[in-house]
Amino acid sequence: MEVNKDEAERCIELAEEQIKIKNKEKAEKFLHKAERLYPTQRAKDLLVQIKLMAPAPEPDQQPRRRKQSPKREDHTTPQYTTEQLEDVKRIKSCKDYYEILGVTKDATDSEIKKAYKKLALQFHPDKNKCPGAAEAFKAIGNAVAVLTDPEKRKQYDMFGSEEERVSRSHHHHGYTYTRGFESDVNAEELFNMFFGSGFGNSNVFVRRNARVYRQNMGSSDSHHSHQREQQQQSGFAAFFQLLPILLAIVLSMASSLFISDPAYSLQATNKYTVARRTENLGVQYFVRENFHSEYQGSVQRLELSIEEDFITNLRHACYREKNYRDTMIWKARNFGDPDMFKSAQSIKTPSCEKLHKIRGMGR
């Protein structure tokens, strides 16, 4: 099947082009062909994406005029099933992040991410209109963000139960899922990191004041909505600017008291001075001078974890680079500035290029 690899890659590229123009049928056709030629995880993820795509309107189909009815029906059919309502109740009744994702405390990163993908599609607000589904979706995103971060997971395993009892707060008919451990990105941004953001609608996610906002490119009121959001956030801007400093101080104190130093670092520091490279992808990492005598675990498993950590960081950086470039292109179009538009188009995405190169090495 190796000889079909190039043709399968070509089919995936064609499918991505069809996704951009929201042609669901052709995209699905190319992806199924790619899977027959050379099965890949990339094609499987794209097949998941197109399931959430809204069907494209037929060109000759004229919009129907709504007939005015003299009487308005009082009864409306719920847009959700009983099973969806039970699923939301289950999430709200969970006591910790592991129970939310349905995994054990010994679960690996791969198992946690697999569980997240299944639940995120099930509870995404575009798919699930059940009351409380949005809060459940946020809880699932917060759970995967904490449990896939090695340092946050260690802290959560040590202090999670007590923090949940203290910080769990009642919100309407359910609960907010802060639990004392919050992720650095919101649930929608996490979803896009796992599944991509090139489908469904023309939304772009813009980071402002340490938060990410969804911006509709086709809306004529987007500029005014941005101004309103900025005005609402202006009162808390100074506080939000101080938060990272306070958190850094608290985390550094906690880490020095309770958390042991990791076995490696992706950056050279005073502690980690010995450079090494992983055997599979050649990712550079740094260890301490006494690594060979002190480290008792499997070096092969450690390097697999290093490569996974490195690729995850690249994906996040690639997402931010693309998001920044798309935002600048949108601003140039909005202001009608051709020079600004040309400059925005030339913005580089080095993390995306590295990620593409690593994917080519692994296949």
Automatic annotation (TrEMBL):
Its main location: membrane. It is found in: Membrane. This is J domain-containing protein. GO terms for biological process: cellular response to misfolded protein. CDD domains: DnaJ. One of its GO terms (molecular function) is Hsp70 protein binding. The chain crosses the membrane at residues 236-259. Residues 51-80 are annotated as: Disordered.
